[in-house]
């Protein structure tokens, strides 16, 4: 598993995390940056000033900082930021219920980006993955989301050559396997020694397409754990979706979509228990 190096330079790590936040979620003030990094306001100010100096950030007239020329414009700022806010309490509950690290991620083309991680407190654990990009066909949450896409959308994402070194045939094999199992499982696909189970948030077609995952050392995983992990993920995903709907005020049609989602969950739970 790829965890934080023991010799990591904290200031560099903070600067890189800030750059990811600006690109992924959009403008930040100094106070918000300090809170997200858990550092003093003066430290956050110095880090942002250095990012501005190197063109990783720009400061607007409102004194907030945004992604600079090196990073390019932030994409889908509000939905991703709102997703993170809605998901964090449920990630913490998921960690408490499963005893393992939990993540929320979004689908971007043929990759997924980790939006937030809550680590468990076990000595041997999967570490923080926030901000990382991974091939969607390898990550558990990416597999869960790809398995719900219609064929024409899969074609649109993967017909431009071989992104991430994967062929269309490999992607189709992963999608078929995930649909057949009813569970999105990553068993060493992204990192040796890591196993993760993924589950989509909300009904198909929501934007941005998002999923939850629970990740653990492979040494601690056994297939008999799958039914409980899937049940925990399904409950958490349903809670995140309800909170996102409540924040957006989108209640019309929610009952119908929730019914579709519950059918999917029930089917996945039955297959996971086999």
Automatic annotation (TrEMBL):
GO terms for biological process: negative regulation of DNA-templated transcription. Residues 69-246 form the IclR-ED domain. Residues 9-69 form the HTH iclR-type domain. Keywords: DNA-binding, Transcription, Transcription regulation. Residues 248-274 are annotated as: Disordered. One of its GO terms (molecular function) is DNA-binding transcription factor activity. InterPro entries: GAF-like_dom_sf, HTH_MetabolicPath_Reg, Tscrpt_reg_IclR_C, Tscrpt_reg_IclR_N, WH-like_DNA-bd_sf, WH_DNA-bd_sf. It holds the Pfam family IclR_C. This is Transcriptional regulator, IclR family.
């Amino acid at each position: 598993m790829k965890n934080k190096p023991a010799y990591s330079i904290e200031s560099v790590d903070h600067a890189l995390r800030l750059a990811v936040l600006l690109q992924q979620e959009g403008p930040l003030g100094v106070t918000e940056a300090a809170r997200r990094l858990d550092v003093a306001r003066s430290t956050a100010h110095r880090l942002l000033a250095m990012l501005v100096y190197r063109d990783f950030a720009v400061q607007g007239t409102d004194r907030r900082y945004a992604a600079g020329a090196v990073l390019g414009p932030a994409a889908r700022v509000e939905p991703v930021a709102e997703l993170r806010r809605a998901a964090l309490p449920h990630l913490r509950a998921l960690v408490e219920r499963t005893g393992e690290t939990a993540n929320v991620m979004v689908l971007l083309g043929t990759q997924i980006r980790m939006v937030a991680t809550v680590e468990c407190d076990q000595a041997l654990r999967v570490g923080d993955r926030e901000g990382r990009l991974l091939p969607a066909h390898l990550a558990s949450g990416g597999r869960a989301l790809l398995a719900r896409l219609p064929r024409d959308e899969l074609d649109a994402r993967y017909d431009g050559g071989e992104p991430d070194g994967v062929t269309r045939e490999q992607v189709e094999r992963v999608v078929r396997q995930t649909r057949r199992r009813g569970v999105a499982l990553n068993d060493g696909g992204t990192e040796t020694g890591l196993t993760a189970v993924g589950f989509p948030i909300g009904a198909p077609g929501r934007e941005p397409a998002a999923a939850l995952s629970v990740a653990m050392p492979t040494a601690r995983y056994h297939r008999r754990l799958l039914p409980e992990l899937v049940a925990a993920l399904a409950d958490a995903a349903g809670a995140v979706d309800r909170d996102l709907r409540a924040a957006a005020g989108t209640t019309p049609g929610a009952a119908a979509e929730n019914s579709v989602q519950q059918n999917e969950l029930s089917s996945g739970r039955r297959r996971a228990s086999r």
